[in-house]
Specification:
600 residues; elongated; 9-stranded mixed beta sheet; 39% helix; alpha+beta
């Protein structure tokens, strides 16, 4: 009598749709799910001695993959119960709950085979009942299944699963594809996993039982890293969180991070590879390393491709971050040459480390090398007062100016650079680090003295008559370097002092002085053009230029200051600059012509 066809008590097509688009990243996971179920069945049987193998056999002619285990097995009731109840709702959280309950049995893991197949055959004999019959379950993509006694009983307990791939998915049951996927997923499993090809006389290839990278020697672990992650590690740090069963190795790359975030880590769960690009276990600031790690007791999501968010996961990430920091410190103390290479390549990651963990500020201050107006320096060797920029262009523009005035300007434009400097400023008292402000620098630029004072007054007055029409104030100073003809100082809000200025006198309020919210001396709110009287081009403004040429020269210097400050000129300003240059060139040519006539 043929078996009765029954319907799944689920919307099978809906479930497969969820598996395909919401749960699993690729059909490739069906191989992992079959191996996982078989491995769990072997472990569940709990017999002592050597674990029996799980055998994968590819049948290229039939377009099928067979997985045979000698584990706990299933009864007919098991098959009906598991497959008739899971996934009755399409909510992902309920799928996850069911998966956790039935992990290692049919469950969602078996349904993943419907990603590549329209028919799955399961032949199984339970080890829990010595008299148990071998049952045969056949599930189909149309949502029906049959359960019946197997026509060919299994000689011993265990399960045989046969997946018949659809013609358009035949690649997923190809011998090379299955062997590669099985080796990737089962590489560290202690249960023997073999892959064979039907009709091939060669012995099956075992793809499991390899030593975990954290149990290898340093040289062997480096080889593993190069083979799996694709780079020869600069250094490596062991990771161990015994209370969660976590073990691993962090491999430091020899090239700088790309800035696109962490590349992700190879995560295993009880030896099964579940992710090759996981970013949950290791802090984001560890951008200089990739990690191979056993997740221990941390739970997996329904897809088994990521870790379940939990307080345990947060604890693990914090502890892993602590151990990576300790590894960096050991490297600095034990191998200065390699550590210097680490700093040269991964300096920005040290900044992120210090920002995330204030206890590392002093360590980073001793080792990270900053670009400054006086050359490369470490924070611990800098003078007591420094300023820093948050913009690379600003640093390049003003570093020579600050240096010439005897100050120190630090390039804080690295990722996390400015934040690290602010944090270091708050954490200690030896060094004061303030953000660079051009208006504050203007106060320190020397004013012209002696005969130059009168010249500055003349030039300033002339420039003022030109620039007032454009809403620009004028200052004339005499400073180095002479190559800095002009400065553009942005406008400021009038009537109040800045908070940073008020901070310099903490007794002001108690003594009745002005606070940061009290009216101060009037401040010209307009942007300011600063002319450097040491520059020959500026001094020439007092010479024998025609009034039109002098006005155009002043206008050109103002527009030059805007360009120098990184301000994009409007179309009108570009035209004005071109006109000013034309006037000056014509004037220069005319003067040269007259000089030649005089010589003639």
């Amino acid at each position: 009598m043929p078996p009765t066809t029954e319907n799944f008590q689920v919307d099978l097509r809906g479930i497969v749709e969820i598996l395909s688009h919401n749960l699993y990243s690729s059909p490739r996971v069906y191989v992992r799910e079959l191996i996982q179920n078989a491995r769990d069945a072997v472990v569940a049987r709990g017999e002592h001695g050597d674990l029996p193998p799980v055998e994968l056999v590819v049948d290229p002619v039939a377009g099928a993959l067979t997985v045979r285990d000698h584990g706990i097995g299933l009864t007919e009731a098991d098959a009906r119960s598991l497959l008739s109840t899971i996934g009755a709702s399409s909510k992902r959280e309920e799928l996850a709950a069911v998966r956790r309950e039935f992990l290692g049995q049919f469950g969602i893991g078996l349904l993943s085979c419907f990603l590549v197949a329209d028919q799955i055959e399961v032949t199984s004999r339970s080890a829990r009942d010595p008299e148990a019959q071998t049952m045969r379950w056949v599930g189909r993509g149309d949502g029906t299944f049959t359960v019946s006694p197997a026509p060919e009983p299994l000689a011993e307990p265990g399960t045989l699963v046969r997946v018949h791939a659809r013609s358009d998915e035949a690649e997923w049951v190809g011998a090379d594809r299955v062997r590669r996927l099985a080796g990737e997923y089962a590489n560290l499993l202690t249960v023997p996993i073999t892959v064979a090809v039907a009709g091939d006389p060669e012995s099956p290839v075992q793809v499991s039982g390899n030593t975990a990278p954290w149990d290898l020697s340093e040289d062997e672990a480096a080889d593993w890293c190069e083979e799996v992650f694709g780079f020869d590690p600069l250094a490596s740090f062991p990771l161990d969180v015994p209370m969660l069963g976590i073990r691993g190795t962090a491999f430091v790359t020899g090239t700088a991070a790309t800035g696109r975030g962490r590349a992700g880590d190879r995560v295993f769960s009880h030896g099964m590879s579940v992710a090759s690009d996981n970013t949950q276990l290791v802090p984001e600031w560890v951008s200089f390393a990739r990690v191979a790690i056993e997740a221990g007791s941390l739970g997996l999501t329904a897809s088994r491709e990521s870790l379940h968010e939990s307080s345990s996961l947060a604890t693990a990430q914090e502890e892993i971050g602590h151990q990576v920091r300790a590894g960096i410190e050991r490297l600095a103390a034990g191998d200065p040459e390699v550590f210097q290479r680490f700093v040269d390549v991964h300096g920005p990651s040290l900044l992120a480390l210090a920002v995330a963990h204030p206890e590392m500020l002093e360590f980073v201050a001793r080792h990270f090398i900053w670009e400054t107006s006086a050359g490369d320096m470490r924070l611990v060797t800098m003078p007591a007062r420094i300023t820093f920029t948050t913009d690379q262009r600003e640093f390049s523009t003003y570093a020579p100016l600050v240096h010439a005035q005897g100050g120190l300007l630090v390039n804080g434009a690295y990722a996390d650079g400015a934040e690290m400097l602010r944090a270091f400023n708050r954490a200690q008292t030896r060094l004061t680090a303030r953000e660079f402000e051009l208006p504050a620098l203007l106060k320190d630029l020397p004013a012209p003295r002696g005969e130059d004072a009168a010249l500055a007054e003349t030039i300033g007055g002339t420039a003022r008559t030109v620039l007032d029409a454009f809403g620009v104030a004028i200052e004339v100073r005499a400073f180095r370097p002479v190559t800095q003809l002009v400065l553009h100082v942005p406008g400021r809000t009038a009537g109040f002092t800045f908070e940073e200025e008020a901070e310099d006198d903490p007794w002001a309020e108690l003594l009745g002085g002005a606070t940061s919210l009290e009216p101060a001396d009037p401040v010209d709110p307009r942007p300011t053009l600063v002319l450097n009287l040491r520059a020959r081009a500026v001094r020439a403004l007092s010479g024998g230029l025609a009034p039109t040429a002098r006005a155009d020269a002043i206008r050109a210097l103002h527009l030059l200051s805007l360009l120098q400050a990184g301000i994009r000129l409007s179309a009108e300003e570009q035209a004005a600059l071109a006109g000013a240059l034309e006037t000056l060139l014509v004037a220069a040519a005319t003067t040269e012509h007259r000089t030649e006539e005089d010589r003639g």
